[in-house]
Design a protein that fits this description.
48% of the residues lie in helices and 23% in strands. Strands 1-2-3 form a 3-stranded mixed β-sheet. The N and C termini lie far apart (41 Å).
Length: 88
């Protein structure tokens, strides 16, 4: 069974992997947030700002975010994006 400490370490490593991509997202008015790491080691991400409505977000997710996380944190089984764009 995983401890909170294990999950925290995974989240830190995930954030480090995402920090390499964030400047590119932010340059286009977007960002990404880690919502959770589930017990089965699925990372759930939220695409923020322009990323949430960008037609290229699926490509950015697959080729950028997912690849970076799986390469840096091989213990992760899968990465999924939950796109929740707040209505204004």
């Amino acid at each position: 069974m995983e401890t909170v400490h294990d999950t925290d370490q995974l989240k830190e490593r995930i954030e480090t992997a995402l920090n390499g991509i964030r400047p590119y997202l932010q340059a286009d008015g977007g960002n990404v947030k880690v919502l959770e790491v589930t017990e089965d080691r699925t990372v759930r991400l939220e695409l923020l700002g322009a990323c949430g409505s960008c037609p290229m977000s699926a490509m950015t997710f697959k080729a950028g975010l997912e690849e970076a996380i799986l390469k840096a944190v091989p213990e992760i089984s899968r990465v999924e994006a939950v796109n929740i764009t707040p209505a204004f």
